[in-house]
Amino acid sequence: MTKKPIDINADLGEGTGNDENIMPLITSCSIACGGHYGTDVSMRTAVQLAKKHHVGVGAHPSFPDRDHFGRKVLSMTKSELTRSIFDQLIHFYAVCETEAVPVHHIKLHGALYNYAAVDAPTADAVVEAIVATKIRPKLYVPHRSILAKKAENLLPLVFEAFIDRRYNDDLSLVDRSKKGALIESPQQAWQQLLEMYASQSVTSISRRVQPIIAHTYCIHSDHAAAVPILRYIHEKMQQHSIPLS
To answer: Measured between alpha carbons, how far is 128 from 86 in angstroms, rounded to an integer?
Structure first.
């Protein structure tokens, strides 16, 4: 029986200095496009690196908040947020066009990712911005999120889960400021990935098993253990005859 392949993605182009080590170990990447981080140079460098390693290239827009790396919810009108996301996407698309690289997907960053998952006006702003660009790549979203519901008839959806983050019982991510929010151990990261892949479930931080559906699995490039985790996962996938997508 052929096992379904796994897509592993990472958020890159964020100035971590880890991109060259991570890119060969993933199959798709989301590149910061000016909201929380990103310039023409950083975007172009990341896109070129992805092209070299045959990694799918995605846009990674956020709240326009470089001071807090896009990890705080900003107070913006819906039209202001739509305009900001639209501008970030158009900027990124232009870089991809000059590099002759197709845009594979869009994935929101940080506070915008989490807030659009639960807040309808924010989700609407995101969808309207994407549709306004006239380009409709895949959208990486949490399963059963409000953003998924808002976008399901307009954009191709890819459900995403996280390799290196603990989940609450409601499938929201445990706040980074809380103990145990980040998975540091390669063995524990692999066990979480395997559970989500094989059983379509995840064990929450309170040890409850919750159903979850995912087609792509994310690791954060600013995670200190990202490279060891990815290398360990590659070893275990080979042992289990699980292919990369």
So the answer is: 9
| Buried-exposed string 37-58: b where 16+ CB fall within 10 A, e elsewhere | bbeeebbbbbbebbeeeebbbb
Alpha helices for 99-217 (secondary structure H): 110-116, 120-132, 146-151, 186-199
Query: Can you list the positions of beta strands (E) in the chain?
Result: 7-12, 28-32, 56-60, 103-107, 138-141, 157-162, 201-203, 209-211, 216-220
Cβ within 8 Å of residue 193, ≥6 positions away = 6, 163, 217, 233
Please tell me whether the overall predicted TM-score, pTM, comes out greater than 0.85 for this model: yes
Q: Could you tell me the domains of the chain?
A: 7-239 (3.20.20.370)
DSSP state of 149: H
Identify the CA nearest to 130 among candidates 71, 61, 184, 48: 61
Which residues have CB under 8 Å from 105's CB, separation 6+?
Answer: 28, 30, 56, 58, 59, 137, 138, 139, 140, 158
- How far out from the chain centre does Cα 26 lie? 12
147-170 as b/e: b if 16+ CB within 10 A: bbebbeeebebbbbbbbbbbbbee
Q: What is the DSSP string of 15-39?
A: S-S-HHHHGGG-SEEEEE-SSSS--
Q: How far apart are CA 146 and CA 225, in angstroms?
A: 31
| Model pLDDT for residues 31-88, shown as the tens digit of each residue | 999 999 999 999 999 999 999 999 999 999 999 999 999 999 999 999 999 999 999 9
